[in-house]
Amino acid sequence: MQSMLQALAANDRKGVERLAVNEHEYRALILPGSVKPGKPPQIMPEEKSAYFWRMLYTNSFYTLDNIMQGHGGKKYNLKRIEVQRVEPFAWYIAHRDPILVLEEDDGTRLDVRLGSIAEYNGQFKFISFWSD
User: What domain count does the chain have?
Assistant: First the structure.
């Protein structure tokens, strides 16, 4: 989250985007691994996998636009992260709907709700910035 806040402060959209899974990671790791631990991977037709990626990416893209317009170029202090739900899957752990509790330099509190984050191989990457 500190990396995200640094990229936001620098108004660096590409820097924020690098913190998210890319199409390959989503289609090769997230989709097939989105089954209960111990279950075989989910097999999905190419067209369906591509469709799910496009839907996720589009929603995430526009949400990130809003985040950048509202918060880009501003410096925030991270007070805490409130994860609404943690869900283990076969190949990763999903941290659902985290809320970043931020504070501006003047002490104003700001809560920013984000989409899901995947934890795998010791890494954390956004699955999406969009939260339904």
Answer: 1
